[in-house]
User: Fold these one by one.
Assistant:
Number 1:
Amino acid sequence: MVINMFVDPLLIQLARLAGWRVFATIAASVAAAGASVAAAFAIAAVVRHLLTAEAPLAEAMPALSLAALAVAARAGLLWLRDIAAISASNHVKADLRARLLRHALDLGGAHRFSRGAGGVQASIVDGVEHLQAWVGFYLPQLAAAIIIPGCLVGILLTRDVGVALIVAIGVAIVPLAQRAWSRVLGERASAHWDAYERFAARISDTLRGMETLVALHATARQGRTLRVDAEELRLATTASLRSSLAVSAITAGAMSVGTAGATLLAAYHAATGRLGAGDVILVLFLAAECFRPLQELQNYWHEGFHGQAAARGLAQLQAQRPLVTDARASDAAWPAAPAITCREVGYTYPGARTAALSDVSFALPGGSTLAIVGPSGSGKSTLASLLLRDIDPDSGEILIAGRPLPSYRLAEVRRGSALVAQQIVLLDGSIRDNVLAADPHASEERLATAVAAARVDEVTARLPGGLDAPVGERGARLSGGERQRVALARALLAGASVMVLDEATSALDAMNEALITEALRTTRGTCTTIVIAHRLSTVIGADYVLVLDEGRIAQFGPPADLARVPGPWADMLAAHQPIGDRP
Ligand SMILES: Nc1ncnc2c1ncn2[C@@H]1O[C@H](COP(=O)(O)OP(=O)(O)OP(=O)(O)O)[C@@H](O)[C@H]1O
């Protein structure tokens, strides 16, 4: 019952990660208690010799040496216990972080639909911090708090039943008090964790969106929101600490009264001759040792509840499934410049009332270029996400070179297709590092070819470090168009044979227009290219045009053919305005 009260099944799962280290911690703790018992018996023997022997010092010497040895052994064992506990904690921390990070990476963009990146970060960084203390310190201490008092009360029984009973009652009061408070503590620890996760997510969002907040003159407002979150966190922390301090006071009281009561009863029995003076010393030592593991458990008690609350966040993260999996994959190699066919593809975002795409069917020959056009919200980016297999359609299917897209392993899809998006995030490092991220072992020659094809050389010529110039955090030192060029070079180096280019919407950005036109020329024939197009000039260079309207295909065909028939494409040509911005 006690175990169920204080141990979550997840804790046991985590303890398995730490394996023998947890057992070593428990064993060292129990052995230290054993050394204490040996010291207590030896000291009791010393007292007995001092009071009753004819040559007290000489006769007490062996027991005194044993006591000194036992005290030294106890110190050494407690040191070993702490080493094992730290090792268990660090092992859990490293292992759990690596697993969670791998899981978060496998999830890809799945957290877009649930907790934000800030919440995920709070779980991986701080949640793990609570859990490592929970597994490394709380769990072994819990085991020690059951084993050691149990054994010591047994030993006390051999001296006097009344004394053993007083200690047993004192020992029992501690978990009972903790149980009485456990619901309150659990609720407050959960409230604390929720407040902490909210605060961490808000800080992360604020730092990432700082430029937008400054541009919107919203920093003061965001500051106020952060202050409210910080105040909520402070209140939740105080409430949680207040309740655990109340339990600490009850526990400390039970321990003091238990030790004092047992020693007084033993002293009374010594006065009446039922026990010897040495027994009083023995009871004093053993009663104190009985409560020691409970006292130490108390120190980690708070950690235990925070660990349980953090475990909920981690369990939620672990329960999240990737949006796409390799369940239907075969060993098919990703084809060069593949034909792409969509058959009655439909997709509705989780929780959305209307479909983002319905009944989308078209066939694109391999090596050709498709321009997707349509008003804002018509489903262009959703179609791109489906073609890149960031998400799977709810209905219909997408064929790549005649095979269903899910029959290729995700690693193949990621290697063989690339997205050059409007919002490119580069990793902190140099331009070279970012391009080579696609293939770290690429030769200088291949790197130079990709860099020249994407016109990155024009960018590096202007920068002091050339290709080794740092891009800054998330690529902040480069312009949007320059970041797109680096991303294009990365995609070309990776040898992607399906390329999705998301053209920038800004009508003023002529550099991007040149980039896309150039990219279309570079990739023609070696790549099947899909451009989310906002400019007529881009579309006219494409082999096919797909006009989307409210998630459905309005028109599909070569631009010259579409221009000859009445319809949205002819209307767009007639209106001759940036086509993505049409109402
Ligand atoms: N994560 C999401 N959750 C719910 N609905 C979404 C999500 N992303 C997009 N949508 C909705 O799906 C529809 C299609 O969006 P999509 O981004 O594909 O349009 P788009 O044509 O690319 O728009 P734009 O030109 O403005 O980028 C829109 O109604 C949009 O509100």
Number 2:
Amino acid sequence: MTSSSARERLAAARLYLCTDARSGRGDLAEFADAALSGGVDVIQLRDKGIEAREELAALAVLADACRRHGRLLAVNDRADVAHAAGADVLHLGQGDLPVPAARALLGDRVVIGRSCHAEGEVAAAAVEPGADYFCTGPVWPTPTKPGRPAPGPALVRYAAGLGTDRPWFAIGGIDAGNVGQVLDAGARRIVVVRAVTEAADPHAAARELAAAVRSYDG
Ligand SMILES: Cc1ncc(COP(=O)(O)OP(=O)(O)O)c(N)n1
Ligand SMILES: Cc1nc(C(=O)O)sc1CCOP(=O)(O)O
Ligand SMILES: [Mg+2]
């Protein structure tokens, strides 16, 4: 895949899933198949504290699923792991590697994203050289990111008001019951964790979210 096609596919993505290595009650491949066939466009392995060797093993499972479904594989935090896994995407938070350092390690092929939690961070990420997309959140307080204050839908409205061409996603506390509020605030792309990883039927959960987000297209 060329770098431009990964960027184009990231721009076309509407539903981005972060999962740990244990989702699917031990059958990560089955879980990934269910989520991807339900409409997830990007899967990130987000498993804080996992050892690199174990992380690479889980990424190999997700990479195989992404290849079969033609979707993007994302790595959280670590440029070395993204390189070793042959990932399409690296996601960096405000406290992670600076974008130029990651870009120097990964070259132009890999899509790089940034987390933002305040207006100033959003304004900076919208023009930051080397960054391809950004995320705003948490929209609502979430146990997945304990202790992270939630700027709420106001930050989504701020990002939408910038009118930037750079792709951006809303994240934090989003599920099928409140996704309409996020879309009404101006988001056209979302990231979820529990709404799919903790769903009794991950395929149906992904399908419902993907349909909701895509219903705001065009
Ligand atoms: C797609 C996506 N958006 C935001 C985050 C959060 O990144 P960060 O703030 O670095 O926090 P951790 O996830 O590393 O705990 C993300 N991982 N992915
Ligand atoms: C990983 C993460 N990052 C956030 C941010 O605001 O950057 S919120 C978050 C957790 C989102 O999990 P859930 O969908 O289960 O609420
Ligand atoms: Mg991080």
Number 3:
Amino acid sequence: MTIVFDDHQQTTSPTQPETLRMTTPLIAANAIEKSYSKGQHKVPVLRGAGLSASRGEFISVIGQSGSGKSTLLHVMGLLDDPDVGEVLLDGRRIDNLSQSARDQLRNHVFGFVFQFYHLLPELSLLENVMTPLMIRHSFLGYWRQRKQIRQQAMDILQHVGLEHRVKHRPSELSGGEMQRGAIARALIAKPEILLADEPTGNLDSSTGSEIMDTLKKLNEDNQLTIVMVTHDEAVAQQAHRIVRLKEGRIANVGREEAA
Ligand SMILES: Nc1ncnc2c1ncn2[C@@H]1O[C@H](COP(=O)(O)OP(=O)(O)OP(=O)(O)O)[C@@H](O)[C@H]1O
């Protein structure tokens, strides 16, 4: 088995903040292999891919359709199990923990943003953003803390520039507003790592730029670690570092190589 480590000393770019260089990765997926069954055949999707991010780093993962980008992101966020390989959080292995421990990590450490927002249509934007904490607390716990949770949701919505839309339902929002709402919902549980799967994939380029501005602001202001999958070179270029995936393997890493 070839272990493909994503070596920070070799892959840092001039645009990467000095503080990020040569630090232990906050999150790392090492030597990941993953296959899916197709009838009687096993189709390999990831063939020893490795990916890591330091605290406060913003990395993008780019590659052709079917190269395994989403699968790698899902493995990293404990949404999917690798067949082979390991996922480390702050240097400690997390993919082999119990189901409940992984559920806890998934809910507390990771925030997820997807291409198609997945906001609940019958709830207002504010209620959508409050939902993760409503689910996390018991009914009584939520009832006791509802004012605090509401204020937290309002603060985050203000941070992503949606304070004027809090009472709107998703159908009354633009695509960019829905995605910023989905980002706010991912952030209310105060994740350390935001995993974004094609966050601009459903948006026109100018709205996509707004979403990238929002993500970059969160990364810069809050030191939020972001791993973003995209198929768009221009979007990928805005991260500190680009990881290129080809047929389930890391093809190359580094900002300059995607130009
Ligand atoms: N749950 C699944 N069951 C079976 N096959 C799957 C599953 N998830 C992904 N695949 C297959 O694995 C391959 C890689 O999928 P993945 O979504 O990771 O690629 P991707 O690079 O993100 O592609 P895209 O850019 O099109 O989203 C694809 O051929 C896909 O059909």
Number 4:
Amino acid sequence: LDRCSLLPIDHFFLFSKRVITPAGIISASVEIDNGKVVSILEREEAPSKEINGVPVMDYGNAVVMPGLIDAHVHLNEPGREEWEGFVTGTMAAAAGGVTSLVDMPLNNFPTTTSSELLKLKLASAAEKLMVDVGFWGGLVPENAANLTILEELLDSGALGLKSFMCPSGINDFPMTTGQHIQAALPVLAKYGRPLLVHAEKEQPGVKSSQVDKDPRLYSTHLESRPNSWEQEAIRDLLDVAKDTAPGGKAEGARVHIVHLSDADESMQMIKKAKAQGLNVSVETCTHYLAFSSDNIGDGDTRYKCAPPIRSEVNRKKLWNAVNDDFFDLLSSDHSPSPSDMKLPEEGDFMRAWGGISSLQFVLPATWTAGIPHGLTLEKLSNLWSRGPAKLANIYSSKGSLEPGKDADIVVWDPESSFVIDENYTIFHKHKLTPYAGQTLYGRVITTIVRGQHVYQEGHHATQPCGKVLLAKSTS
Ligand SMILES: NC(=O)N[C@H]1NC(=O)NC1=O
Ligand SMILES: [Zn+2]
Ligand SMILES: [Zn+2]
């Protein structure tokens, strides 16, 4: 156990004047024993150095809150570990205050589309995890046509499924139509697990390779994936998601739209579907809240992702939606590649890999972008811990600070800033990121996973003791 933690003791107290609990922000001591939160006691001042021989860590005015849960990460291992990997990805997570993440079923090779392939994932993750990691399985035409494969994948512990309504960018992860999704939803309903959907649909007339336009212009990328792609996919998706309504043949399944960028009609459709009782939820990503097309330089492919980052007007609408509690959760969609695949020299948006590298920065980046929009610490915490825990069905043990739950905690200083420059250590496998050079508020001081101090002020525990998070079989 010692090497799993920089503070190898089982039983201790944390004190802070800002502990984020489901009942609000309080000045309190949090007792942690054997990996769990045991008690949270309101008190104005730090107790002495110890209570009955149990050490007290006084964090003063720093924020003590549930560790972030990033439900949308591409770790790409096995098969593309030169893109990211379990070791580097989970070290970056720990350094960023992320205590659990859920790995996407693609970009790894082979993709995670059957029980056997999930077992490959698990074997490959063994002894590499600095934080806890769950897995989404992939829904593709092949297993949508053979529901036994899907059931086995869910029996093996996939927390839910993910599919694409447009080409995924990876040849071995083909897209699904509304019909494939409709076929899979009753299976997900039986297991009570979600389907996550990349909702973009190619429109006739708009080619993602706009051969006649200058591929170095950001506008070429933006125009190649207009918001109508999101709107048309979401229209199709919500049509089949009707089956999730009470009494429907997929009641108990949840349809979750990942990485929404369009703040216009897509948002209106989702609101309406929720109001009608469909079991639908939605996330956006830090980069849609932090960046806008108005500020992306031509040739700067670090910002290339799908759906694309849209206008400043759109970004403001996304923040209004955050403030109106439209989003159920936030995620990173950390999807890095080797730097040369971003074609930094050519700056060709049409040919560069689409995916943004961000996992280590989501806490300070969300906070920094949110300050001018009145983001509160509680809302930040709900979007980054409670929401994703509920999506992944791990809220009984994670996602909030409450007695009985896992002691997954980030201690951070929202008022302290840092610059992502050459003195700052990025733990991602590749250092190319649009956050480079930025000044961010929200320095992570300590990250605790099940009571173990896995990260503190630039240092990690020497042994990776993260666990895999598998769904318990319900069938
Ligand atoms: N395959 C993959 O990771 N695609 C992701 N990248 C991105 O920008 N959007 C995605 O869905
Ligand atoms: Zn996607
Ligand atoms: Zn993704």
